[in-house]
Structure prediction request, 316 residues.
Amino acid sequence: MHHKSEPLSRRFGRVFSVLALTLLSFSGMAAPSPLEGRWDITIDVDGKPAPGWLEVRHSGHHTLIGQFVCVVGSARPISVVHTKDNTFQFAIPPQWENGTADLKVEGAINGEKLSGKLTTPEGKTHNWTGVRAPVLRRTAQPVWGKPVKLTDGNQMTAWHAEGTNQWIAENGILRSPKSGANLVTHEKFNDFKLHVEFRIPKGSNSGVYLRGRYEVQVTDSKGMEPALDQMGAIYGFLMPNEMAAKDAGEWNSYDITLIGRTVTIVANGKTVICNQEIPGITGGAIDAHEGEPGPLLIQGDHGPVEYRNIVITPAK
Prediction:
């Protein structure tokens, strides 16, 4: 028996409809969780606030992954267990903490805020709270003000030590002869351009924290491959595109521009990070209040180091 064939246009229409419904069903499965995004965390450590940071994003249709920063150290990858009653949890191996157990985090979502408890690898439990991290996207290019010199002569008039001071000011050089306190500017800054020169002995380690929250690594890195924990990196987040370090004992320079979250780093005349977004705070930050101005912080607790010709040009 002869059957009249279906018009080609109608057949294509049916196929298109099936494909569209299939795509819609898949996209519906990937609806974002309210936990997704970046969160600035404050941890109550024995009555004192300590900074943390959390980023959550989806992988596929049902899996939540991300990164977590806890007080010290770098961002660590996480896999999040998220339940239907707006609670979540994850566990990660220890990094710089004391103890050998996993670091465990439990929390709950309440609108645009988080709260929960954290159990350290040595078994101590601390409460914590979180708020959504600000975007910090600027709508216009900054207008730069007057440069401010932060090193001069034999005084540290622009700085104070966090703890017992081991820093010495001598002929315009800030010198930390041994591990000790960090050095922090009295003044706080928002967007800025920064020039800084540093000299580090073999095997030592320091860093410059922008707004006191984002660490630019200062390490003895000559001859190494670029890495997240070596010179030119935003520690744990942004890797330089080449290693520009000089030999240990030689003076290096950074020229850094920070606008919102966007950073450019020129190391010894080479642009090693160009207009990259810093996702969140580095371990060891002064706080997690990313929307606020912050000081410069020079790390002095990881070994001897010298700094000179520190000049900051704030945005008006």
Remarks:
- The chain has two domains: 37-132, 148-314.
